Amino acid sequence: MDIAELREKILKQDRRALARAITLVESGRADHRQMASDLLESLRSETSQAMRIGLSGTPGVGKSTFIESFGMYLTGQGKRVAVLAVDPSSARTGGSILGDKTRMERLSRDKNAFIRPSPSQTHLGGVARRTREAVALCEAAGFDIILIETVGVGQSETVVSEMSDLFLLLLAPAGGDELQGVKRGIMEIADLILVNKADGDLKATATRTCADYAGALRLLRKRPQDPREFPKAMTVSALEEHGLEKAWSEMCTLSDWRKAEGHWDTRRASQAQFWFHEELRQGVLVQLETAQAQAEIQENLAKVATLQMAPERAAAEVLSALNIQTNLKTRK
Predict the structure, then answer these.
(1) How far, CA to CA in Å, does 201 sit from each of 123, 198, 204, 243?
(2) Neighbours of 297 (CB within 10 A)
(3) What angle do the packed helices 311-321 and 291-305 form, to 10 degrees?
(4) Residue 107: exposed, middle, or buried by beta-carbon count in 10 A (0-12, 13-18, 19+)?
């Protein structure tokens, strides 16, 4: 299938074509990267203004259950929902289980939903290297809501905020007190904190935990892109599907406010600039994998190991050999 044909099928909301396109953008082969770039460029004017929702939480908090229940709620409202789930890759083998689609059995059968698990590989920040491009493909395919589920590794998952319009943080009941809530990093970028599993014997505990985090959020500095009452914490039960309607209402309220105040477009522009710099960084890393670079690296590595050259000077010489300018201060 050529790029033109693939493009037309994506615009006609062909799910198989979308899956094939995501496989293409995730490939590391040079010819596939060029084809992916051509495809994305041809679709650039066709992408919709879908709501991109990033979602994270520690393992066991019920992310998959929440996404399935929330996704079913959204499709019940007539929305088309795409789920991009990032699975952790093994540090030894590089493999991933990719079991998210299996865990969301009901949603995977919904004709208005699309679920795509992807391996994180070696990319840090809780998302895969090409998740942003997969988001663009889902927008071109006409999805209204795109849920981006991160690996769930903890406080460092801030990269997802550079590809989403809203960021949800799922927490478990009794997951921490108010001091835990004021930790920097992932807590600072959350727009909504959802205390999940607010059902059964845990309902009262979830309510107390939610109050603790609500208090913690009041101690954090208010963000200019938010109305006064945001960010906020609330309880939900993905298992019993309680609180989903209210959570969605809060998301729409925040989204509408940001659009009206101009923060939505500003955020998207800032994200585009972030990924421009990220692609530049990744391009430099690719150059370092070439045979020429590896020869320079090994030669200077030996000098560093025998203390003949300082590490920063050795690095500067390798970059200079590759015609990459650097402002590193070097010393002999």
Answers:
(1) 38, 8, 7, 17
(2) 16
(3) 160
(4) buried
The mean pLDDT value for 247-267 works out to 92
Q: Which residue, chain included where needed, has tokens 């590089």?
A: 94
Question: Which residue bears the tokens 């809530």?
Answer: 181
Distance between CA atoms of residues 254 and 191, nearest Å = 9
One DSSP character per residue, 55-75 reads EEE-TTS-HHHHHHHHHHHHH
Model confidence at 73: pLDDT above 90: yes
Cβ(332)–Cβ(307) below 8 Å: no
Yes or no: say if 1 and 20 are a contact pair by the CB < 8 Å rule: yes
Q: The pTM is what?
A: 0.81
Contact (Cβ atoms closer than 8 angstroms) between residue 189 and residue 216: no
User: Does the structure show a pLDDT above 80 at 68?
Assistant: yes
pLDDT over 60 at 93, yes or no: no
- At residue 147 the predicted structure's pLDDT band, cuts being 50, 70 and 90, is very high
Written as six digits, the tokens of 186 are 């992932």
